[in-house]
Structure formats: C-alpha cells, structure tokens
Structure to design on (420 residues):
C-alpha cells in the first residue's frame, strides 16, 4: 500500500467526516450531520483548532531570524552612515505582512481557496514572465526579480511554489475526494505534471536553479502523498536527470552557477573566488564553538567577510554568534515544524488536504536542508534562503502562506475535531 492510501486509511468517521461518499448519498440524515459538523469546524477553527506548537516554532524561528539579520547588516549600514536598524525594520515589516497572510489563509481555509487555484496559477505565471520582461531586474546573475517602490522587490518564483502545490492538489484529489476512484488516474497525474513543469521551464530561463530544485522536490512529495503509481515517480526522476544534463550541455546555466557546482565538487578550487562564500561561512560557523561569541560579537560577521550573510548565509551568523547550542535550537525548531506538518498530512480527512500538507513539508524540509547544507559545505550553493529566518519579503510571504495552508488542513481535519 502506498503512502497516499496509508494516510487515508483508518481515518475516523465521527460526525460523518470520514465516511464513504456512498453513505452520504444513501442517507440524508448522514449528510445533514456531516454538514453540521463541517460548519462547526469552519466556525470554531480560527479560535480553537490552531496548532500552537507549529505556529510557536515558526514564529520563534522568525524572531531568531530578525536578530541574526540585524547582526549581519548592522556593521554595513553603520559604515555607510545609514540606519543600523534598517534591515531589521524591513524584516519585521515582512514578518508582520506574513502573519496577516497566514491569518487570512488559515481563516478562509484551503477548501474555499480551491476555487481560486486557477487564478493563483495564472498570477504566478504572469509574474514569472514579467520578471523575464523589461520589468524584471537582474540580481546576482538571475533575472528573477521585480523591483517595487521604497526599496522592496518581488520574486515571483516564491508564489509559483504555492501555485504548484495547490494546482497539483486540485487535479490529483478531485475524483478521489468525490469517491469516484481510489487513487489518481494517469490522466490526472499527467495534467498535474503539466501544471507543475510549466513554471519550472520559465524559472530555468532566469536561470534560478534553486527554485527549480525546490519545485522538483515538491512534485515528488505531492505524487508520493497522492497515491500515484510508482512508475510516474520513477519516470519523473529519469526525466529530471535528462533535463539536468540538457541544461548543462545547452549552456542555460550562467558561468557563475557552473563554477558553484565545480566548487562544491572540489572545495579546494578557487577558495578566494567562487569558493569564497562557503569557505568564509564554514570558518564563521567553526569559530563559534559550543556557545558562540555572543550576539553582535562575531568577528566574521562584524567584518562582513561572508557575502549575502543576511539571506543565503544567515546560518553562518547563528554558528558564529550563538554556537553549536544556538544552531541546535534552530534545527530543533525546524524539526518541530516538519513533525507537525507530517502529522497534519496524515490526519487530513481528504486527499486535497493531505497533498497540500505534504507539498508544504517537502518544500520546507528540502529548502532548510539545502540552505544549511550549503553553509557547511555539504550542498552546492543554490541561492535559497533559510525558511522563516533569512531576510527577504517574497520568501517570508510565501512561507507564511504555506504555514497558513498547513494550519487550515489541521483545523479542518477529522481527527483534530474528534479530539476536542
């Protein structure tokens, strides 16, 4: 039995939330009880059904991130005569907006958002094409940004991750949740892959290898949770390998991205050039020892030796200033977020919710591993921020929207209702 079927097996049928669709058709009283229970969940969810452990861990990561961003950017702004708290204020503003988006998504609910999925997909694709147009801006060799007033910028690839999860969930779960089939058919899987692969193609033109990798992992996680036949995943991995080879041979990647992979394969290659970021990040983390040098007292951080330290390499600030203990706390908080996400996926009372939660977990888990891995030299540098922690509005907004989806699935899950 595959994972998707295991998740749905044994779901409670209290209040009619997990019963077979045929019973709903045969018994009007059964349908009325289910409708009443569903309305009760929708009404009480915002107040009574919040997963406080999940929310608290994510918020703690964001607060720690604010302190790390402040420490990483304070020396630079002081040298230029700017406001030493400028990045901190923007980070907190981004967090506040993210919390508002989280609240809206959790209250509205993933089921009601189902009708908006085509619109979200269209907006995401429009944003990706806009970034490639003259409206877009090139940052760090990637034409992946849209500049906004007041010094803000938007990265449409972050919204595309949300669109892929919701689009695939809608297509894969449609006939399963109505009771027509036990698992997604080949046609549903094919069209869900079309929806997911389209943004990857545009993203690779930027080229944004990191975001493409994340969406690829999301696709695998979604297919695994949906109960799709294993041959689809095997074929997808083969296609991914062929696609990666084609991208390399056709020269789609920029030279600095190729150099990054070369530096990962050979860490001793050009430590003063392409390997400089990782070498300095590892030096900063290693110098922190067990307890760290103290917040705002890291010599590597104060000397601005690690480029992009408030975004891609923010974990190096934690290693130097908070030490092994501080890094362990961050990893523990991430493990709590992923653990709660997996439980939410397994307790969801419909495949739509299971797929959404699984896609979010795959996204957060891989991006966390990739970011920390490139800081300590076990993964290639891919330009991915650390979820909840790194500075950046687009990432912060998308991550908190994803957390809102997780909370929505939890608050409206059958088991969450029966445990009240």
């Amino acid at each position: 039995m595959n994972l998707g079927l295991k998740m749905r097996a044994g779901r409670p049928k209290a209040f009619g939330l997990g019963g077979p669709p045929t019973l709903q058709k045969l018994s009007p009283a059964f349908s009325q009880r289910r409708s009443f229970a569903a309305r009760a969940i929708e009404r009480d969810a915002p107040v009574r059904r919040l997963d406080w452990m999940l929310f608290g861990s994510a918020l703690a990561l964001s607060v720690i991130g604010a302190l790390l961003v402040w420490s990483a950017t304070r020396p630079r702004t002081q040298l230029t005569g700017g406001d030493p708290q400028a990045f901190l204020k923007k980070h907190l503003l981004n967090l506040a907006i993210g919390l508002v988006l989280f609240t809206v998504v959790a209250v509205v609910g993933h089921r009601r958002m189902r009708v908006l999925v085509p619109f979200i997909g269209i907006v995401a694709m429009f944003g990706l094409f806009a970034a490639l147009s003259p409206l877009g801006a090139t940052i760090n060799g990637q034409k992946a940004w849209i500049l906004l007033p007041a010094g803000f910028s938007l990265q449409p690839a972050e919204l595309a991750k949300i669109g892929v999860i919701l689009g695939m969930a809608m297509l894969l779960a449609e006939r399963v949740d109505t009771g027509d089939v036990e698992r997604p058919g080949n046609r549903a899987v094919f069209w869900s892959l079309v929806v997911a692969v389209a943004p990857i193609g545009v993203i690779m033109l930027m080229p944004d290898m990191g975001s493409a990798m994340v969406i690829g992992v999301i696709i695998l996680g979604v297919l695994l949770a949906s109960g799709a036949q294993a041959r689809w995943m095997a074929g997808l991995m083969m296609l991914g390998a062929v696609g990666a080879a084609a991208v390399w041979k056709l020269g789609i990647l920029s030279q600095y991205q190729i150099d990054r992979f070369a530096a990962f394969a050979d860490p001793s290659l050009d430590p003063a050039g392409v390997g400089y970021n990782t070498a300095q990040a590892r030096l900063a983390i290693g110098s922190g020892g067990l307890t760290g040098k103290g917040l705002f007292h890291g010599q590597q951080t104060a000397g601005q030796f690690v480029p992009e330290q408030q975004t891609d390499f923010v974990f190096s600030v934690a290693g130097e200033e908070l030490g092994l203990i501080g890094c362990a706390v961050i990893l523990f908080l991430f493990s709590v977020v992923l653990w709660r996400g997996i439980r939410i996926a397994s307790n969801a009372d419909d495949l739509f919710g299971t797929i959404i939660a699984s896609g979010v977990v795959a996204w957060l888990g891989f991006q966390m591993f990739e970011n920390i891995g490139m800081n300590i030299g076990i993964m290639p540098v891919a330009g991915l921020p650390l979820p909840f922690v790194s500075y950046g509005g687009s990432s912060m907004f998308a991550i908190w929207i994803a957390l809102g989806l997780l909370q929505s699935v939890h608050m409206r899950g059958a088991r969450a209702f029966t445990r009240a």
Notes: Strands lie at 136-139, 142-147, 153-154.
